[in-house]
Write a structure and sequence with these properties.
- This protein is of the alpha+beta class and 140 residues long.
- The chain has two helices and eight strands, in the order E-E-E-E-H-E-E-E-E-H.
- It has one domain: Secreted effector protein pipB2 fold, CATH 3.30.2450.
- 18% of the residues lie in helices and 44% in strands.
- The protein has a four-stranded antiparallel sheet with strand order 1-2-3-4. The protein has a four-stranded antiparallel sheet with strand order 5-6-7-8.
- Helix 1 runs antiparallel to helix 2.
- 25% of the residues are buried.
Amino acid sequence: MPPNPTVLDLAGLRIEAHPRPSYFDRWFNCRIAVTAHPFAGVLETIFTDDDLVEFADALDQLDPAGEVTLGGWRAAELHLVVEHQIGGTDGALAIECSLTPSGDDRYPFIRWLIHNVEPFAAGAADRLRALATIQPWPMP
């Protein structure tokens, strides 16, 4: 098991992924923790290794602004719209986050903003790929 399951940690948003022991499938038990005052909570879901790699590939396309999505369809969906922040620290980013337990039925969902974020995409993409390709895979 990887020692640190945190693949993304921003003020107001934290994603952890733990390999789910299996003989056949490369699935991850994931926790998406949200702190968006006055709301806070944790969405627990399952993503495949392909979901994590697709998210990493999308993060690589941020320059550093753009849009990325983790999951979707019948799985939970986290959508991030990343933009250059106006004002504040030079080079800081503002991120609009949207989270729903099911991508094909977006109700209920929560949307919140995170400000003063340093560029994060490259490090998160590297952690996601390392986690998705761990060997040996944990067995039950």
